[in-house]
Amino acid sequence: MSKHGTKGLRERGIELLSVTMAIVLWQLVADLVVNNKFILPSFTDVLFAFIRIIEGGILFTDLAISLLHFGIGILSALLIGIPIGVVMGWFKIVNRALDPLIEIIRPIPPLAWIPFAIVWFGLTHTSAGFVVFVGAVFPVIINTFDGFKSVPKVYVEAAKVLGCMSSGSLIRYVALPSALPSIASGIRISMGVGWMCLVAAEMFGVSTNGLGYKIWWHYYLHQMDFVLVYMLILGFLGLFIDRLFRWYVDGQLLKWRAGVVV
Question: Is the pTM of this model over 0.85?
Answer without folding.
Answer: no
